[in-house]
């Protein structure tokens, strides 16, 4: 595929590095000759043009009118954690019935982020996407303590079948430090993934298993591969604009709960990949 790239310099450099490991990818400097486009700028998204969007999900709103591209199947939005090997290992164990039905999910997302709405909101949206993918649906209620302008934010998401997800954000780690962990307890097993030595531990009966991984830039490798050499599973790794809009709306509900100092009930949500950002393909 001939691909034209128009991104920030640091994104461009990372794409060129990852692109070396992707077959059938040819970079072109003329957008008129390109079969696909990569950008991290919402204003450059063109309906009808196969586009890989690498920017923040929140940046799409309201800078871009979602109504103009909401039905486009050519715009592929990357949610990095969908292609992160830590998440994929846990998701695979869940979808192959090694863990049973998800019961309790806990995610710690600790980093150094300035007290600005957009970067912190983007972090919240990406982790909501992780939750919805693993539970294959959306919650019926949620409760939040903390907000984007405080050092921490915690939210509890309650699902119709009794499952619970807990998200814990800390924004004030020392510069250069970050920590991410995900633990999932199912009714027949549990999985734990974090960034300590890049080891994933899986407990599902018999002896525990460990998966040793290096997740750096692997999400970008996978995203470029799925974009240039599309397959049905690869296509499902991307968000549509409609998926992104729903995640953004749920993020607003998380903040609403804190502002109201009360739980927020969600009505009319369904397990629908076209509207909720979820995937039920197992």
CATH third-level topology of the largest domain = Dihydrodipicolinate Reductase, domain 2
Q: Structural class of the helix and strand makeup? A: alpha/beta
CATH superfamily of the largest domain: Dihydrodipicolinate Reductase, domain 2
**Largest β-sheet summary:** 9 strands, mixed
Shape: globular
| Topology pattern, helix = H, strand = E | EHEEEEHEHEEEEEEEHHHEH
Structure description:
The chain is α/β, with parallel strands linked by helices. It has two domains: 2-77, no CATH class; 84-214 and 240-276, 2-Layer Sandwich (Dihydrodipicolinate Reductase, domain 2), CATH 3.30.360.10. It is 28% helix and 25% strand. The strands form two sheets. A nine-stranded mixed β-sheet has the order 13-12-11-10-6-9-8-7-14. It has a five-stranded parallel β-sheet with strand order 2-1-3-4-5, covered by helices on one side. Strand 8 and strand 9 (164-170) form a beta hairpin. The model is unreliable at 268-282 (pLDDT under 50).
Topology:
Blueprint (H helix, E strand, L loop, with lengths): L1 E5 L2 H11 L6 E2 L8 E4 L11 E3 L21 E3 L7 H11 L6 E9 L6 H19 L5 E6 L5 E7 L5 E7 L8 E8 L3 E5 L4 E5 L5 E4 L5 H11 L3 H4 L5 H20 L3 E2 L7 H4 L6
Helix pairs in contact: 1-4, 3-6
Give a nutshell description of this structure:
This protein is of the alpha/beta class and 282 residues long. The chain has helices at residues 9-19, 85-95, 117-135, 218-228, 232-235, 241-260, 273-276; strands at 2-6, 26-27, 36-39, 51-53, 75-77, 102-110, 141-146, 152-158, 164-170, 179-186, 190-194, 199-203, 209-212, 264-265.
């Amino acid at each position: 595929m001939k691909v034209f790239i128009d991104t920030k310099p640091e994104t461009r450099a990372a794409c060129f590095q990852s692109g070396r490991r992707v077959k059938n990818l040819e970079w072109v400097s003329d957008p008129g000759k390109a079969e696909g486009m990569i950008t991290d700028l919402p204003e450059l998204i063109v309906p009808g043009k196969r586009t890989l969007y690498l920017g923040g999900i929140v940046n799409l709103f309201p800078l871009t009118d979602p109504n103009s591209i909401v039905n486009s199947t050519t715009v592929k939005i990357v949610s990095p954690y969908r292609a992160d090997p830590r998440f994929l290992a846990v998701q695979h164990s869940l979808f192959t019935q090694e863990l049973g039905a998800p019961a309790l999910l806990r995610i710690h997302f600790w980093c150094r982020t300035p007290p600005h709405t957009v970067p912190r909101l983007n972090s919240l949206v990406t982790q909501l996407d992780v939750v919805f993918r693993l539970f294959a649906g959306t919650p019926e209620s949620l409760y939040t303590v903390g907000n984007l302008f405080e050092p921490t934010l915690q939210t509890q998401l309650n699902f119709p079948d009794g499952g619970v997800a807990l998200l814990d954000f800390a924004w004030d780690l020392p510069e250069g430090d970050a920590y991410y962990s995900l633990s999932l307890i199912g009714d027949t097993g549990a999985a734990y993934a974090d960034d300590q030595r890049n080891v994933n531990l899986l407990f599902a009966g018999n002896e525990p298993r460990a998966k040793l991984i290096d997740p750096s830039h692997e999400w970008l490798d996978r995203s470029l591969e799925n974009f240039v050499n599309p397959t049905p599973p690869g296509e499902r790794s991307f968000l549509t604009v409609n998926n992104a809009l729903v995640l953004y709306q749920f993020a607003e509900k998380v903040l609403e709960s804190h502002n109201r100092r009360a739980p927020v009930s969600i009505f009319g949500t369904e397990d629908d990949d076209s509207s909720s950002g979820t995937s039920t393909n197992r």
